[in-house]
Amino acid sequence: MGGDKIPSTEDIEVFIVCLEQQLEILSATVQHKETFQRLVIASPRLRLVDMPGWAGLGGVRYVPEGWEQLMTDQAKEELNRLNMQLVEQLRNTDAAFSLGEGTDGLVCVRFGMVTADTDVEELLGLVVTVGQEVEESSRFLETMTEIVKKGIEAATLDLQKENEERLWQDGILRHVPVFGSLVNWWSPPSKESGIKGRSLNLTAGVVESTENIYRYHMQLQQGASNPPGTRSPPQPQVQTPVAPSAGGKHSRSSSHSSEQSQSQTVPTATMTTTSPEAVLQSVTS
């Protein structure tokens, strides 16, 4: 033994107490594991993840309804991203949650060891609740992205169609170089014949023409209250509804929380797409 210090009676007692505590935690984890697996299997959104060598309760993966039929490479990436965000949110509540990886290479929520008084059902319920919030938040952003994309496409088509109609209404001679200037001098075009820009109303999900914006020199919000005695501006001449397709990339279930979050967080900003002719018209008028 040489110069090694012989453990005192107090050191041995401390070691015994620590060992007993660890054995209690290990025993409680083994007892709760059966309940843990049973509740995960019964959950429609949780999947049990095989994690050999992990001494904790185990791992679960949050899978939105309908995703298992769409397990492409892109879907797997989105599923990994969703579960990583889920673990990040859970760790703000309890540091016992950690990020793990199953034998299939996909990330999961890893549960560590628990004590005898741990409510496993409550922990799994927390995972499902936070997972739904993360899922609906991601779904809302995808919906907004799709609306903006469709709005840009609709605005481009509207401007192209209006430009073609204007070409036929004004006559081809007005657009011939040099000779068109003479025609415009002889018969000036109407100020109302210019091509209107387009604005995307995110609140209403509608692409609108911008004649009111230039006429009243401000962004007009639908449903805004007007002072007494003032006439409300007319509706835009062109209104093209823009809505995300019903059959999205993934089949996700809607919930009351998603409807409530969307009704509270939908921005009221507008994105304006304006043609050069409309800008020139607004400057000269």
Automatic annotation (TrEMBL):
The keyword Cell membrane does not apply. Residues 222-285 are annotated as: Disordered. Pfam families: PDXDC1-like_cen2. This is PDXDC1-like third domain-containing protein. Signal peptide: none annotated. InterPro entries: GrpII_AminoAcid_Decarb, PDXDC1-like_3rd. PANTHER family: PTHR42735, PYRIDOXAL-DEPENDENT DECARBOXYLASE DOMAIN-CONTAINING PROTEIN 1-RELATED (PTHR42735:SF1). Keywords: Lyase, Pyridoxal phosphate. Residues 36-139 form the PDXDC1-like third domain. Transmembrane segments: none annotated. It comes from Cryptotermes secundus. Residues 237-246, 254-279 have a biased composition (Low complexity). Its cofactor is pyridoxal 5'-phosphate.
